[in-house]
Amino acid sequence: MFDRAYTLTCRDAAGPVGTLIAVRHALPIDASPEPGIPAAAGATRVCGAVGRVEIDALGDAQAIICRDPASGLDYRRYGLTRGDTSYRVEGLSAYDAALRLALASVVLDRTVDGEIKVATTELTDSAAFARLQAGLLDPRGVRGEGYLRNNGNSFAESAAFFEVLAEKARGEKGEQAAIAEALANEGLQQSNLGNFDAAARLFRESERAALEGDGVAQRLLRNYRALDQLNQRSPVGAAAELAKPVDPVNAVFDAGALAAGEISYSLAEAINRESSATRQMGAADPSLTRAEKAEVLDGQAEAIAATAAHVAGRMDEAVKGFKHARQRLSLIRNGAVGSIVWLNAEIDIELAKIAAASGHIAEGKAGFDRAIGALDAAYPASPSVLLAKARKAAFLLAVGEKEPARAMFAAVVDASASIPDSGTTLRDLLTPYFGLLAGEGSDPAASATAAFAAAQVLERPGVAQTQAILARQLAEGNDDAAALFRLSLVRSRDIARAEGEVARLGSLGTATSSETAELAGQQETLAALRREQTEILAKLAAYPRYTALAPKRVTLAEMQAALKPGEAYYKLVVVGQDLYGLYATSGSARLFTVPLTRGNLAREVQKIRNSIVTVENGKAVNRPFDLDRSRALYKALFGPVATDLGAVRHLVFEPDAAMLQLPPAVLVTEDAGITAYKARTVDIDADAFDFTGIAWFGRGRAISIAVSPRAFLDLRALAPSSAPRPYLGLGNNAVPQQRPVTAVADSCDWPLAVWQRPVKPDELLFAAKTLGGTSVVKTGTSFTDNGLLADPSLDKYRVLHFATHGLVSAPRKDCPARPALVTSFGAKDSDGLLTFREIFDLKLDADLVILSACDTAGMATVAASREAGVTTGGNYALDGLVRAFTGAGARAVIASHWPVPDDYNATRRLIGGLIAGKPGQSVGDALASAETALMDDPQTSHPFYWAAFVVVGDAAKPAVAAALPR
Fold it and tell me: Which residues of 285-323 are buried (b: 16+ CB within 10 A; e: fewer)?
């Protein structure tokens, strides 16, 4: 009963990386495990001779290297005996440092400090990898990893673990309580990500799944609902949730019925659950008792109540609550429980902030340092550590210690590059850092450089989620790019292993001749591996799918070096409620404050959009454009650099928040045209829709929309298409009378009505006729999702033009967004949608992809985006459909903010300008020229007719028509 067995897991591995056993009898290192003991990973592998090694903190140990002939992977096994207990650890050689540290920790029965160095790739998809890992672990392991990720602030990963835990529990009898727990935790992670409607749905499902009278489950759900209210900035709502009654801890056990010999369903399920855990451990269940779990949850509830009091400004009540919660938690196994360590760190930070507000600076610093130390020990290299450090940096700045604050913020930004999930965690916490940088005028270039680096930490959750899905799509592919990508992962592991050996051998004080020779050999191997990895990455760089995903950050100097004369890069930075403009040309850069809040920007953008087009009774309605608001917004966003913009013929604009829903071309740069318009329209007979003479920002200026600095530079580096055919038009889906049996809808699918209003094919036919040659148009039943996925000729076209509906929000507010283009229903397995992950798998060689008539750039409103977990109003279409197309091989994507009307041939004139530009003319100039012609025509001068399209990518790329074969 005293034998022990452990599984070793690592966040970047899809399954266990090793096993460790401790048995109370002799166990030779080269012996196979005995029956009943979990098999060490190499029981049937081919192993070499027994050797000796020195393990830090332990000293001498036996060692064997084994190889799996089937996979070609190497494994290491270490063993030693202390007293009457034999210890043995085995696992993948790439995780050698983890094996040694695990052995030392178990033998010494204490936490042993050490570094585990394992190579990862910049494309590691944390959430999807977590989901795969969770699928390979047992339910107890999944549960533990989920809580661990939550405490480390890796919310997307945590949600993936609990999602899998719920799936596992649904497949097992007697696991109703596990389902309730998993759903509650998944709901909390959705709330942490800003998806409050989905969180509410999951909380309701958890409540329905919970056992009647289960006081522990009730406490868990009570606390999570209170935390959800705090996430929504509602301390009153949090207090109301905490005030709701819960049953006693063991109300699930009916004492009277039990005395009479009756075992209820709820009791049977609880007994079976405990028995299952006990059988799995082979000993008494070491987890907390139900009473201890309830006590932890009640202590957490007190801490949440104190936080709500703090947010509401009731400081004395908050301090009293935090101290009582900590005292209560310390009585549970002396506070030596992982969740209690995390809770105490949060309490330390809250008390530190309160102390600092009362003038007790030293006490505040000490509280932050205690919290950072505890989190660093329990959750090293996690977002929670960065979060605590960022909060301390903000504290230092608030008490006037600017230089230490600046240094700590800069260190947090630097460290975040290697810590997954950190961007969403840090987004609001970097607000003070940007305020500090924007307020310094002594060295504007240095401030802009630091801000440019920090701004790339603030990756929109929509971008992060898209990156995660598409990275997994690449890793699981079967083409050359996927094979190279997987090979790069293998070489990364090999490099890490070689580096570890070089470091170990190089640290030996007095090396033997054989060790010196081994060091030289390992150094040579390491150099060769690095050369090979460099070659692999160079090859991968030729694949758009790889470059579209690489989250590598860009320095301001790199961006400036890529900008040509007459070009500028403007990045709108939204952090918390504050807005900043970061403007750079090849020779200068500056950061400035935008005098709007995020909420104000959203309201102004919505009012401007409403004056362009609204939908009433299913029809598009436009009104006289709001010139005054447009002019005011231009001044707020671009006023500080308005003089410089006069010389800019190509602006690269990286939007955020509500500006993702408005084409910048509609902003007004001068007052004179507005004054003339108002004077002209005093006459009651004047045409209020005649906006000729207005100084539009888009007049004579090419504008590129960038999804990120890295994406813009990668697209700029791509060579033009070499496809032989000019054009492929796609749209006008076939109208189904009912959903095919093979495309059965679930609760989060789109209604059939989406397919019953297809877009007319007129613009497709016009474009094909204009370009001529071997142009092709596919409509009706020839335009299906599975037909496109099976079409090997898509890379033969230089222009792909989709005139169909784009689904970029969510069908219901508690459903996730699933970016897709509507197609006809095809044969078996067709769902009538070309999803963004399917688009990513297409093989294209296109200069241009046009997405028209489908509102792909504007439909995802702030509210719809927030429901998809995109808390800053980030547009899933921009981050999903566009990135997928560039990954598939498109140099630029033309997206529409609203369907362009057919009146006055507006659509034809815009499309004609795009595809029939002058020789050598850029895509941006071609669009700007077509727009200018409509601006100068009184019938089409309203932005409704000319401003819908934006170029996402590099608008300086040559227009496709200039290079088409004649």
Answer: eebbebebbbbbbbbbbbbbbbbbbbbeeeeeebbebbe
CA angle 28–31–33, rounded 5-degree value: 110
Within 8 A by CB and 6+ apart from 265, the residues are none
CB 64 within 8 A of CB 30: yes
φ, ψ at 899 (rounded to 5°) = -60, 125
396 to 238, 346, 784: CA distances (angstroms) = 29, 18, 58
Strands 4-8 and 18-23: antiparallel
The DSSP symbol for 640 reads: G
351-357 CB contacts, 8 Å cutoff, 24+ apart: 351/319, 351/322, 351/323, 352/395, 353/310, 353/391, 353/395, 354/310, 354/315, 354/318, 354/319, 356/395, 356/398, 356/399, 357/315
Quick check: 576 and 656 in contact, CB under 8 A? no
Return the number of other C-beta atoms located less than 10 Å from residue 742's C-beta: 12
Burial 450-473 (b: 16+ CB within 10 A, else e): bbbbbbbbbbbbbbbbbbbbbbbb
CA-CA-CA-CA torsion sign (819, 825, 827, 831): positive
pLDDT, tens digit (0-9, with 9 covering 90-100), for 716-745: 888 888 899 999 999 999 999 888 766 666
Q: SS3 string of 875-944? A: CHHHHHHHHHHHHHCECEEEEECCCCCCHHHHHHHHHHHHHCCCCCCEHHHHHHHHHHHHHCCHHHCCHH
User: Are 943 and 927 in contact, with CB atoms under 8 Å apart?
Assistant: no
Q: Is the pLDDT of residue 43 over 50?
A: no
Q: Are strands 702-705 and 650-654 parallel, antiparallel or unpaired?
A: parallel
Distances (CA, A) of 448 to 398, 440, 453, 573, 592: 22, 10, 9, 12, 9
Helix then strand count (H, E) for the chain reads: 38, 23
- pLDDT given for residue 862 in this prediction: 34
Q: At what angle do helices 627-638 and 598-612 cross, to 10 degrees?
A: 140
CA-wise closest residue to 497 among 516, 525, 535, 520: 525
Torsion of CA 187, 188, 192, 197, to 10 degrees: 40
Q: What is the pLDDT of residues 331-348, one digit of tens each?
A: 888 777 767 888 899 899
User: What's this model's pTM, rounded to 2 decimal places?
Assistant: 0.72
Which amino acid makes up residue 768? A
On the CB side of 457, CA atoms within 13 Å amount to 31
Q: Please say whether the beta carbons of 934 and 940 come within 8 A.
A: yes
Q: How far is CA 623 from CA 609, 689, 907, in A?
A: 10, 8, 19
Cα separation, 382 vs 375, whole angstroms: 9
Residue type, 195: N
Q: What are the residues facing 776 on neighbouring strands?
A: 728
Task: Enter the tokens of residue 695.
Answer: 């100084």
Q: Is 334 exposed, middle or buried (0-12, 13-18, 19+ CB in 10 A)?
A: exposed
The CA–CA distances, whole Å, from 571 to 376, 458, 464, 556, 638 equal 33, 12, 18, 11, 11
Of the candidates 380, 344, 571, 300, the one whose C-alpha atom is nearest the C-alpha of residue 459 is 571
**Strand, coil or helix: what is 684?**
coil
Q: Answer for the pair 341, 374: CB distance below 8 angstroms, yes or no.
A: yes
Q: Who wins on pLDDT, 89 or 551?
A: 89
83: three-class secondary structure by DSSP: coil
Question: What pLDDT, on the 0 to 100 scale, is given for residue 287?
Answer: 60
Structure tokens given for 216: 């522990």
Q: Residue 666 gets which letter from DSSP?
A: G
Distance between CA atoms of residues 833 and 818, nearest Å: 10
Q: Is the distance from CB of 340 to CB of 271 less than 8 angstroms?
A: no
Distance between CA 867 and CA 869 in Å, rounded?
Answer: 5
Which of 673, 662, 675, 653 lies closest to 633, judged by CA?
A: 662
